[in-house]
Amino acid sequence: MRASKRYSVTALYLSMNANQRDLEIEDDLARAQKALRELKARISSQSKKNFVLEKDVRYLDSRIALLVQNRMALEERDEVASHLDDASDITEGTFPNDEKTQKYGNLMFLLQSEPRHIAHLCRLVTMAEIDQLLQTVMFTIYGNQYESREEHLLLTMFQSVLTYQFDNTPDYSSLLRANTPVSRMMTTYTRRGPGQSYLKSVLADRINSLIEIKDLDLEINPLKVYEAMIGKIEADGESLPTGLSKGITGEQAAANENVQRIIGPRIEMLIEIADSFLDTIIDGLDETPYGIRWICKQIRSLTRRKYPDASEQTVCTLIGGFFFLRFINPAIVTPRSYMLIEQTPADNPKRTLTYVAKMLQNLANKPSYAKEPYMHKLQPFVHKNKERINKFMLDLCEVQDFYETLEMDNYVALSKRDLELQITLNEVYATHSLLEKHGAELAKDENSHLNQLLSEIGAAPAQLPRKENRIINLPLYSKWETPLDDLTAALDITQEEVYFMEAKSTFVMIMRSLPSTSAVTRRPLRLDRVADAAGTTKNDSVMVRKGIRAMELLHQLQDLGIVDKEDNYALLRDEIEQELVHLGSLKEKVLAETTKLDEVFRTIRDHNTYLVGQLETYKSYLHNVRGQSEGTTKRGQSSKVLGPYKFTHQELEKQGVIQKSNVPENRRANIYFNITSPSPGTFVISLHYKGRNRGLLELDLKLDDLLEMQKEQQEDLDLEYVQFNVTKVLQLLNKRFARKRGW
């Protein structure tokens, strides 16, 4: 206990030191840590942008689908147009007045530091309201995804939500399964930076190696296998043998010997593939984000508390309901939306991934029956891995609690004067509006802090048009500030502990600042000499202050009988030397984590580019549709032709536009493409060979056809000699033509 307290107090001392300049250290570790902090901040910020963009794309996806089918009224088109016009980066601004800033700062601090209010609100909101609330909670109020205080407060909120779920669900079999605001909240939590990083490091290679084998058909649904078999016979121009007929039932197909012969090896291969996925997931235990493991731990403890007679199997099933159903399986089934792969997988690997997810889910659920009878043939996978998966589920729960650290972090937060929240005005107003709507339920006690703040702020303002929305830096502080005079009592530590930790921290900072060639850095350390060397440093007043303070602390600890000069302050010296060894290995860990997160950040940024491209495409298409419906192109008047723009084979291959080429390697340098837009939304792609006047072939394209292909997840656009990637073609067309037509 003493050691953990010491560790906490070090953090506290460092956080609350009055003179920040005294804490500045410029060694390799400090620089690496600073770079890592900045990278984590960028990931948090980019994650939020992507979440907002995904929400926009989902909305526009459904609306544009109607446009493509010409089923949308003109006023609806205008509504979509305004949504698109607004979908731009939000600029920075401030609150209209200081009083509002202060009151909202008090409110947001209360919501952040007392998670029970948001937990309660999450239970009250509708499915229609949850996305906006989750955006604010997950990516703003607790948006610093790698900062311990915010993460721990967010997890405390989850604990509150889960406790309520368990207390109010009579039958455990339906726990965590229904699609509710709470389940959406848990899924969104897994999409934050740490969860994304885990999925990429654990699953990406496995999924990518599987989807490369496009022709591997592992369908085991007897009816589909039978139909494919019939289709192949007919495609080969043969007549159907006796005994094979169309329009049979699933049971009849399953009884067919040929179907059974086809399915047998496929079952074995599916089990082999699912085993490899399971191995990867189990081996990645230590990489599983702390927060996800802690939620698993809460599910275990709540299950045991609510259902004391529940078997271990039941406990593991409920943990699996979160870990696999909400976290792992969605990423396996739709790896592209989780940024694990670049292209939508072909039909065969896509189906295989669905089977793998079902098998893992069945393993986690241990159902006594299979919804689809043919899935029963995969039961050997469940039987042989039952014990492994149960052990893994329980191992996930083996993480420490954070309550003591959180208590200390909250005291530190109260002591700071620079706590800020980067939040948009609309996020503030939307949160205020939800609190107001559900105020009677949330703040039943008239004297509660929440009720007082809501009364003072007044009515919630309406949402601003996007163009008027602003990002603000909202200073956070408590209206009911806790005095921090008696920290030792509040944190259950002694004054001796505080002196000891201050001494340890001071000596560590001195050692990190001294040149490694200095004689006093040799082991075993002579602490009095280290303090003396620091106190007599020339031209460095900060170091001198540290040296003098270190010497004072040695004397104080000696007087208190905690250390002894006779043994060269061995107790303190040993801890300092251990800390320095730890910091040495810490640097390697920081660099390794930075490398890993760099990859995550690149992936998130690439996904952002893809989402922005989607919005640009929608903008282009909408412009065309509106232009046509409003008759902006006069009959008989030709539109301005744009292009041709010339692209080499190598260029398009590098950009990923060409995903497969049948052009011989030695001729590719002579191939080029011209792209022309004779009218808005219409494009002509022609393939040319150097030295020849006429193109080898031409392809007419309509923007809505491309959009429809993308919607149907048809990624291949066949140009006879080459295969284009539909998404990349859309991005290229937007880049070249959209702005030139003033879209």
From TrEMBL:
PROSITE patterns: RAS_GTPASE_ACTIV_1, RAS_GTPASE_ACTIV_2. Transmembrane segments: none annotated. CDD domains: RasGAP_GAPA. Keywords: Coiled coil. The keyword Coiled coil applies. Residues 22-49 form a coiled coil. GO terms for biological process: negative regulation of Ras protein signal transduction; signal transduction. InterPro entries: RasGAP_C, RasGAP_CS, RasGAP_dom, Rho_GTPase_activation_prot. It holds the Pfam family RasGAP. Residues 149-365 form the Ras-GAP domain. Gene3D superfamilies: GTPase Activation - p120gap, domain 1. GO terms for molecular function: GTPase activator activity. GO terms for cellular component: cell cortex. PANTHER family: GTPASE-ACTIVATING PROTEIN, RAS GTPASE-ACTIVATING PROTEIN WITH IQ MOTIF. This is RasGAP protein.
